Amino acid sequence: MALLVATTLALVACMVMILARALLGPTVYDRVMAVNTFGTTTVMMIAMVGYLMGRPEFLDIAIAYALINFIGTVAVLKFFEVGILGADSSSPSEPSAREKPVE
Amino acid sequence: MSSVFLLWVGGAITLSGAVFCLIGALGLLRLPDVYARMHAASVVDTLGMLLLVLGMLVIEGFSQNALKLLMIAVFVLFTTPVAAHALSRAALREIEPQLDSKKQDAAEPP
Amino acid sequence: MRHTLYLALTLVALWLSLSGFFTPLMLAFGVVSVVTVLFISHQMDVVDEEGHPLHLRPHRLLLFWVWLLKKMVIANLEVARIVLSPSLPISPTITRVSASGLSEVGRVTFANAITLTPGSLTVALTAEGEATVHTLTQTTARDLATSTLQQRLAAVEQGWQAEEGD
Question: How far off is chain B from C115, nearest CA to CA, in Å?
Fold first, then answer.
């Protein structure tokens, strides 16, 4: 059990360091990348806390978080790339960036 | 007895995973530009995550929760490269990667 | 139709493994969920070869994953060594590698496998299958040039051309 506590503390330290990168930036992409990695450690953290407290039901939350993390990252990136979150996004700068070229 | 033993083995494996997460986080702070940092971030997302899941699998044994843990690992392994690719492609439009210019010609294939 | 069936089977397996309850009420909820997701997937027009690449050979795919896992561990240790060494011996390089001769799913797997191994990152992938890769060191770039990744993926999807004739 002591090892699980140590793991959780190490994960907390890891999350603090990643959060520092998210705050430092300097570009928006650094922040998005840091938040994405932060999400992965959060998923692991939720699962670890579940085992630490003897409640493995936390795993369901971890699964949901893993999926939301990915969708959130892609949504934020899409927003920064084309400035709109809807499906009908004819980008002003690079219209065909997300479609593969069709002959 | 045996479950206590498995708890220690699993705890050791999760701890090693957390150490890899720490190394990745350190790389995130130390490396110079966003592309280089992405390599460090993928240490957290691959080996760190896999070792943590493996350790929890050892503690858990065969059960429904083990299946959920495997599912988390597969989700993360499938989604992180996609997110990383989207990120790098978006970044490439604004940020020029810092390359090792002095030796680059030697490595570039003709 | 074949893809719909596979998607339905996958969804049922996912529901049963996540739920773990086998009471009639819970199973009815499961049926409703699966049908809803199938309907939405059809509306979104995502039930196709891309979502369920049936041309991949399962045992070869398993071998590929084991090989990739091994590569991943080695690359992780290498990046960890670089990050931990005080002088930070990095030499970022951009190289191009070819994934020609693979199907669309194969090319995406190719790019993702490169991204998944720390130390190399696919920043662009053309429709012809040329990937632009950012590597942390020149050694990684040189290893990538001699990598057997493309051949291994070709082995995974051996025979796909006969089906699609691309």
Answer: 6
pLDDT at C32 over 90: yes
* B50/C75 Cα distance (integer angstroms): 14
Amino acid at B13: I
For chain A, the domains span 2-81
Give first-to-last CA distance, chain B, whole Å: 62
C84 and A CB contact within 8 Å: no
Per-position DSSP letters for B36-100, written without gaps between them: HHHHHHHHIIIIIHHHHHHHHHHHH-SSHHHHHHHHHHHHHHHHHHHHHHHHHHHHHTT------
What is the Cα–Cα distance from A7 to B8, expressed in whole angstroms?
Answer: 12
pLDDT for B110 equals 39
- What is the average pLDDT across B58-77? 87
What would you report as the CA-atom Rg of chain B, rounded to the nearest whole angstrom?
A: 18
Nearest to A22 by CA among A12, A14, A33: A33
Query: Taking 70 as the threshold, does the pLDDT of residue C166 lie above it?
Result: no
Going from N- to C-terminal start, the domains of chain B cover: 2-94
List CB contacts (< 8 A) between A100 and chain C.
127
Q: Judge residue C164's burial from the number of C-beta atoms within 10 Å of its C-beta, 0-12 exposed, 13-18 middle, 19 or more buried.
A: exposed
Q: Does the model's ipTM exceed the 0.85 cut?
A: no
Local structure of A15: helix, strand or coil = helix
C124 secondary structure, DSSP code:
E
